């Protein structure tokens, strides 16, 4: 099997080109993309190689230090918040143990309220309910009768 013309071979060649780029071997990376563009039998793979080469050869933006976005480190403020979070909810019962730790505390447990069984009220006066129940019982009775 010729790997250079298969989907797996294409993926391997793309990974190789990306490894070239990561190791500052830009010319090898561009050469490999150009080979894929010219020689690969699949049109979509040739197009993808051309797009990746285009991105690689695009002019690099020159951004000053003032224009760059700075992201502050979370550091110690997060640690103090995390410890208070675990202390606050340490004694919580097992039913909410499925929640992830990155969720913010909520004043209401919406899912718990949704999943809690509350029997319906007012069915004794609902005629549609009694008609549906009688119809369902008749169907079940007919099915049992016809099986015998």
UniProtKB/TrEMBL annotation:
Transmembrane regions: 128-146
Cellular component, GO annotation: chloroplast thylakoid membrane
* Superkingdom field: Eukaryota
Q: Does the keyword Membrane apply?
A: yes
| UniProtKB keywords | Membrane, Transmembrane, Transmembrane helix
Protein's name according to its UniProt entry = Uncharacterized protein
What organism, scientifically named, is this protein from?
A: Linum tenue
Organism phylogeny: Eukaryota, Viridiplantae, Streptophyta, Embryophyta, Tracheophyta
